[in-house]
Design goal:
single chain, about 350 residues, alpha+beta, 2 domains, eight-stranded mixed sheet, five-stranded antiparallel sheet
Length: about 350
């Protein structure tokens, strides 16, 4: 087995628009266990999934009766691996509807179920795909990271429940953060940090630094910063964060360009402060909508430092919060989420 230690994540893949990453079955199982009761009687749509290869199809078809699904629909953008499926070199996309007509607890035989061709290319924005989306109750898939903004916008437009894989940096997108702020989207619980491994098509060029090839010739890359994004609720979201620190002006300085205090670590949020606080974006792993309110972020709330201080006293860059150093200069902070304790 070939192993390469270093990892440049999805940078090269994004530049090349190589978005065919196959989520591991174990990662799907670990996340779906938090929502199983919410799938009964529902139509699930996996609209970025070739059913011949997708572990999303494998999970939902194998667990169809146990989850109580009404229907499973899968589509994909053309053939995700034309080397494996040479009949698809014409560029035709495939489509499958499954109604749970299997007699055992095994993955259904694709030939028996019947994979059909779509008229178009299977793009999630196509008329065919949108028509199927309208039938669905819940969308579960790993969408193209390069189109994540547009993909989520479509789900919101059609008022769909969803559970999808994305890069944690998507949180900072101007189209995505307001959904977190308005309690319309949040992180799933099973992935908090670390790398995740994705299988890639047989013909995928392994030019990224972190990859391996197993003893069966299957290719994998390791990726940092992968998260589940969802609007399906789960009990852990409503567990209040235990706060142990108390507020003091010396321990919690105020920003120079926004009326809020700096809280460098989530664990240091003061129990007795009822004003605005800037916290690291990792706070969202502990966020309970019953305990805190999200007011915005440093990207949208911080005043331009040119209105606050003289040029040369602060590091220039995009919108951020700044703290005074005490000598007339200011230091630029990492991205911050602005919150307020609702329970005070």
């Amino acid at each position: 087995m070939k192993q390469v230690a270093k990892n440049r994540d999805f940078r090269e893949a994004r530049l090349a628009k190589k978005d065919e990453f196959y989520t591991q079955l174990t990662d799907i199982e670990r996340e779906l266990q938090h929502y199983e009761g919410q799938f009964r009687g529902k139509v699930v749509y996996c609209n970025c999934d070739d059913p011949r290869m997708s572990n999303f199809f494998r999970f939902f078809s194998t667990n169809f009766e146990r989850l109580g699904l009404k229907k499973l629909i899968t589509t994909c953008y053309r053939s995700q691996d034309p080397d494996r499926f040479p009949s698809d070199r014409s560029g035709r996309a495939v489509y499958l509807e499954y109604n749970g007509d299997k007699s055992d607890n095994q993955v259904p035989n694709i030939d028996e179920i019947g994979v059909q061709n779509l008229s178009g290319d299977g793009d999630f924005r196509s008329e065919e795909s949108v028509g199927l989306l309208k039938q669905a109750d819940i969308v579960v898939t790993n969408p193209p990271f390069s189109l994540f903004r547009e993909y989520i916008a479509q789900l919101v437009e059609h008022d769909k429940k969803f559970l999808v894989v994305g890069n944690m940096n998507a949180l900072t997108y101007k189209e995505i953060f307001p959904l977190f702020q308005e309690n319309k989207m949040w992180y799933g619980p099973s992935i908090r940090g670390g790398d995740r491994e994705f299988q890639v098509p047989d013909g995928y060029p392994l030019t990224a630094a972190g990859f391996r090839v197993d003893d069966r010739g299957r290719k994998y890359i390791r990726v940092k910063g992968v998260r589940w994004f969802t609007n399906l609720d789960y009990p852990g979201r409503h567990s209040s964060l235990e706060l142990l620190k108390r507020y003091s002006p010396s321990a919690y300085p105020k920003y120079a360009n926004f009326e809020a205090i700096e809280v460098g670590k989530t664990m240091d949020i003061p129990v007795d402060y009822d004003g605005l606080m800037g916290v690291p974006i990792t706070f969202l792993d502990k966020f309970s909508p019953d305990q805190f309110e999200i007011l915005g972020s440093s990207k949208t709330l911080g005043r331009p430092m040119s209105e606050v201080a003289e040029k040369g006293t602060y590091q220039q860059g995009g919108p951020r919060f700044y703290l005074p150093n005490g000598d007339g200069t200011y230091r630029r902070m990492y991205d911050r989420v602005v919150i307020r304790n609702k329970q005070l």
